[in-house]
Amino acid sequence: MSEDRLIVFENVSKFYGEVLGVNKVQLALPPGVTSLVGPNGSGKTTLMNLMTGLVRPSRGRISVLGIDPADSERLFRKVGYCTQFDTFPSGATGRSLLRGWLRLHGFAARDVGPLAEEALERVGMTEAAGRKIAGYSKGMRQRVRLALALSHRPELLVLDEPLNGLDPMARAESLALFEGLGKQGLHVVISSHILHEVDKISDHVVLLSYGYVVAEGQIHGVRKEVTEHPMQILVRCDRPHLLASRLFVAEHVVEVKLHPDGGGLLVRTRDASAFHRLLNSVVLEDRIELEAVAPADDDVNAVYQYLIGSESESL
Amino acid sequence: MSSAALVHESGAPLLRRQILAVMRLELAKGLSIGRSLWLLALAFAPLVIIGGHALKDRGCDVENEKLILAGIVQLFHVRFAIFFGCLGLSVRLLRGEVAEKTLHYAFLAPLRRERLIVGKFLAGALLASVIFGAGVLACFALMFGHSAGGLEFLLHGSGLAHLGSYLLVSTLACIGYSAAFLALSLLFRNPVVPGMIVLLWELLNSFLPVWMKHFSVTFHLKPLFPVTLPLDGVFSGLFTVVAEPTPAWLAVTGLLAFAGLVVVFACWRIRDMEISYSSD
């Protein structure tokens, strides 16, 4: 894929004085939804600030859709960044902030109003837009920031903890919006602590720890690379005892646990492909009725726990 | 969702539109009552003294009133009010936004940082010029409007030329100090301390060697004042170093060139500025 479709980090390091931000980051993020995952201080925000030119790399090269982040004029025609900074110009209303922001973009007066209203509608803030931001709830402020990032119809959305402060309904709507944007071919880069939600919409994940990228790729692919931890697979069926005894003889199966409700079992295997072949043959031979077969630990959280250990408990 | 449908200007129209957008935002903030009250108080404070003079000394001759006004404009407006007004305004333009953690909004727009600086400088200089120009105008009107002699000087004498000179001086002072303090706020986290050093430099200007005098806003403004202020005591000549006055045309172009150079320097400095509010 050509560089003008990718977000490229080439051996990028960022130090704040003697403090490490990120170190030797090597990434090429394709279009779609990418999640940056890691505990506080792992370098998620630094990566986002680097790709938007708010901070400059101490070493290495960054290219965002073929643009140097230092070229803010070209970059922010294509990029919208929803930062974590929960501060707004004093006295501003949601609508006045958006209009002023779009004027800074250089849009003609006739375009400013419709673009602002379109963005406000997307985030469900049309009614409250005339009120001063100082009186908004945290969730409303978050949505105004999201409207700013979306208002100029960018090709890349960078969202730093975009779900913070949103109620469950707004969170679900935002996730659906991000997923929809990803499916339309946009780049959406998200950092979030709500891993199980982000996991569902992510095409790509980047796992960070102490400023280093510890794994990246499609979440299922990343899970397969973690060979020292056997994969866990949940099987729901009508005769779990029989299935357990048949599966346990295979060499790659290291553990089988019967589910307390008597309707399934949890299998740990070193070779998922061999397990699925074995399961097929056993089910056919013994006429076992399968309800569901699903990986139980290839979500971001489980992978992160395997890779980083106890730190992920804080996620 | 695509940007294809949106029309982006380029070149000079975009430059003009973006600088005007920055100015509009800054002027809206600067003109809010809470933020501009102290500037208005600074600009119009001498009205209290002039008002007292108008009530008490009705028979005062015009020559004396010219000297009083020259003292107010030269010593209060230019050396104190405009100096501190521009210091406060310029510090708020950049460092204020860093302190409020709102500077990133401008940095996240497709706006060259140089345009941001130019827009902020123009807004600051314009706001200061209007407020302090209005202050000088009000002082002038009150000083010469309360007596027949004053009105005669204003309407049939050289009054309007004097007024024009004072307005020119206050505008140039606003431009010079706005540029200087904007640049200082990019060099220092707390530009008030270097601002005080600049104030000291300006105060000591009379005692500096001739070549050093030229690095001063007030030195270049001096020949533009319509009335020369006689100084008493040690300031009358004991320690002062007399320098050839700068011709008026050179003073004006020199000050504008100085402001331009300082703004260019500020544009260069802001290119590498990073947003890390925590370290500020």
Report on this model:
By secondary structure, chain A is an alpha/beta fold. Chain A has helices spanning 44-51, 72-78, 94-105, 109-122, 138-150, 168-183, 195-201, 219-225, 240-248, 272-286, 300-308; strands at residues 7-16, 19-29, 32-37, 59-64, 79-82, 156-160, 187-191, 204-209, 212-217, 231-237, 253-258, 264-269, 290-295. Chain A has two domains: 3-222, Rossmann fold (3-Layer(aba) Sandwich), CATH 3.40.50; 230-296, Alpha-Beta Plaits (2-Layer Sandwich). Chain A contains eleven helices and 13 strands. In chain A, the strands form three sheets. Chain A has a six-stranded mixed beta sheet with strand order 5-6-7-3-8-9, with helices on both faces. Chain A has a four-stranded antiparallel beta sheet with strand order 11-12-10-13, covered by helices on one side. Chain B is an all-alpha fold. Chain B has one domain (35-272). Helix content of chain B is 71%, strand content 0%. Chain B has twelve helices and no strands. Chain B has helices at 11-30, 33-44, 46-56, 62-99, 104-107, 113-145, 148-156, 159-187, 192-203, 210-213, 217-221, 248-270. The two termini of chain B are 37 Å apart. The A-B interface holds A 16, 49, 52-56, 70, 72-78, 81, 83, 85, 87-91, 97, 100-101, 103-108, 111, 115, 148, 150, 152-155, 181, 184, 186 and B 1-3, 5-9, 14, 17-18, 21-22, 24-25, 29, 32, 100-102, 104-113, 271-272, 274-277, 279.
Outline type of chain A: elongated
CATH architectural group of the largest domain in chain A: 3-Layer(aba) Sandwich
User: Based on the structure, what is the oligomeric state of the protein chains?
Assistant: heterodimer
| H-E order of chain B | HHHHHHHHHHHH
Whole-number tally of structural domains of chain B? 1
Q: What count of helical segments of chain A does DSSP give?
A: 11
What percentage of amino acids of chain B are in beta strands? under 5%
Number of strands of chain A: 13
Number of helices of chain B: 12
Largest sheet of chain B: none
Instruction: Please compute the radius of gyration of chain A using only Cα atoms.
Output: 23 Å
What is the rounded Rg of chain B? 21 Å
Q: What do we call the CATH homologous superfamily of the largest domain in chain A? A: P-loop containing nucleotide triphosphate hydrolases
